[in-house]
């Protein structure tokens, strides 16, 4: 199987849009392993009929099972279990992160920060120069790495 096409990635992102946890799961599927997990040939990337007509890809978290990921490496299984947890509430053991390589761990940390909404948080502060009250938009606790 190859990597996700830009069409597949855009479709998955559109499907997950509006839920931080789904957005994070989709982004992790798209970015990890060079996009292989978002390839339309994967059992968890399925086509769903749109009301406007045509097909659109969605993440079927129920298809991420021990049977469908059993042939993958331990690290690949770990990241897909984390995806399933973000997208569907399937519990994941936090010690799963101990078997991830540095690049994948970076993506997982960004996904967790995104799912928690850290990219949309703000804080009240007093401007030290003007002394005026201000609402400051905060950066993500762990931004997505550059593609």
Description:
The protein has 147 residues and is α+β, with helices and mostly antiparallel strands. Helices cover 38% and strands 14% of the residues. It has a two-stranded antiparallel sheet with strand order 1-2. A two-stranded antiparallel ribbon has the order 3-4. Helix 1 runs antiparallel to helix 2 and helix 2 runs antiparallel to helix 5. It is elongated, with a radius of gyration of 17 Å.
**Total strands:** 4
Strand order of the largest sheet: 1-2
The string of secondary-structure elements, in order, is HHEEHHHEE
- Tell me the span between the first and last alpha carbons: 20 Å
- Percentage of residues assigned to helices: 25-40%
- Number of discrete helical segments: 5
Largest sheet geometry: 2 strands, antiparallel
Uncertain ranges: none
Mean pLDDT: 91
**Structural class per helix/strand content?**
alpha+beta
Radius of gyration: 17 Å
Amount of beta strand:
5-15%
- Shape, please? elongated
**The number of domains:** 1
């Amino acid at each position: 199987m190859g990597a996700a096409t830009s069409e597949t990635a855009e479709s998955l992102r559109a499907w997950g849009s509006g839920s931080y946890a789904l957005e994070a799961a989709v982004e992790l599927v798209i970015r990890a392993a060079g996009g292989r997990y978002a390839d339309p040939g994967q059992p968890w990337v399925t086509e769903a009929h749109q009301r406007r007509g045509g097909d659109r890809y969605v993440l079927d978290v129920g298809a991420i099972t021990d049977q469908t990921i059993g042939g993958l490496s331990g690290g690949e299984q770990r990241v897909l279990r984390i995806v399933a947890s973000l997208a569907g509430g399937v519990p994941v053991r936090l010690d799963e992160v101990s078997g991830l390589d540095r690049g994948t761990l970076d993506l997982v940390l960004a996904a967790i920060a995104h799912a928690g909404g850290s990219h949309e948080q703000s804080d009240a502060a007093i401007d030290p120069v003007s002394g005026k009250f201000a609402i400051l938009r905060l950066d993500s606790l762990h931004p997505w790495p550059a593609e």
